[in-house]
Amino acid sequence: MQEFPVRDLSARANSRIVKSAVTPRPIGWVSTTSVEGVDNLAPFSCYNYVSSERPVLMFSANARDTGERKDTARNALETGAFVVNVVTEGVAEQMDRTSADLPPDESEFDAFGVERAPSTHVTPPRVADAVINIECTYRESVEIHDRTVVFGDVETFHVSEAVLVDGDLSMEALDTVGRLGGPYYTSIDRMELTRQF
C-alpha cells in the first residue's frame, strides 16, 4: 500500500484524494435569500446531519478566491435561515446546473428555471420539485481553513407523499443522488446486505 503524507502533497492532490475516498457524499441543495431579497440555490456535497432526535444539519462552503464567503454561507449567516432540498434523480440535472457561480444579484431559481415553493417557518423558498425540503434556522458557524461550516436547527420537514408508506419514509421510493470523486454522481443501488445490529 502506498503512503501519501498530506504535507508532501499539493492542495489539489489532497482535495482529490479526500473527495474520492469520502464517497458517496450526500448532496444538500441549499436555498437561501440575501438581505437584498435575492433567492440563491446551490448544491453542497460537504453536507450531513450532526444530530437526529433534535435535528441539526450542516453544510460546508468554500470561500471565493478573494477570501470572501460565497452567497449561500453569507446569506445563511446574515439572515439566519436556509432550506435543504433533497436531491433525487428527478432533479439531479437541475441541481447540477445550479452549481454555476452566478453574480449575487442573480437567482439560480430564475436562471435555471427551478420552480419555487413557499416555506412555512423561514424566508428562503423551497424547491417545488424536491421530494423532501428541510427548513432550518441558523445555529452557529465555524471557520476551518478556507471553509465556513454552517449549522442549522431543523424547524420543519416537507415530505412528498410519493416517498411515504404508512407515514414513514420509504427507502425503496427515495432515489437520492450522491457525489463521487471528480465530476461524477451516483444513484442508489441497494445491496443485499442489511444492518444486523
Radius of gyration using CA atoms only:
17 Å
CATH architectural grouping: Roll
Q: How much strand content do the residues show?
A: 35-45%
Query: What's the number of helices?
Result: 4
Mean pLDDT: 95
* Helix amount: 10-25%
List the secondary-structure elements in sequence, H or E: HEEEEEHEHHEEEEEEEE
- The CATH class: Mainly Beta
Q: What name is given to the CATH topology?
A: Pnp Oxidase, Chain A
The neighbouring-strand order within the major sheet is 3-2-6-9-10-5-4
Would you write up a description of this structure?
Pfam families: Flavin_Reduct. Keywords: Flavoprotein, FMN, Oxidoreductase. InterPro entries: Flavin_Rdtase-like_dom, Split_barrel_FMN-bd. Belongs to the flavoredoxin family. One of its GO terms (molecular function) is oxidoreductase activity. This protein is of the alpha+beta class and about 200 residues long. It has one domain: Electron Transport, Fmn-binding Protein, Chain A (Pnp Oxidase, Chain A, Roll). Helices cover about 15% and strands about 35% of the residues. It has helices at about 10-20, 70-80, 90-95, 110, and strands at about 25, 30-35, 40-45, 45-50, 55-60, 80-85, 115, 125, 130-145, 145-160, 165, 170, 175-180, 185. The strands form four sheets. Strands 3-2-6-9-10-5-4 form a seven-stranded antiparallel sheet, covered by helices on one side. It has a three-stranded antiparallel sheet with strand order 1-13-14, with no helix packed on it. Strands 7-8 form a two-stranded antiparallel ribbon. Strand 2 and strand 3 (about 40-45) form a beta hairpin. The relative contact order is 0.19.
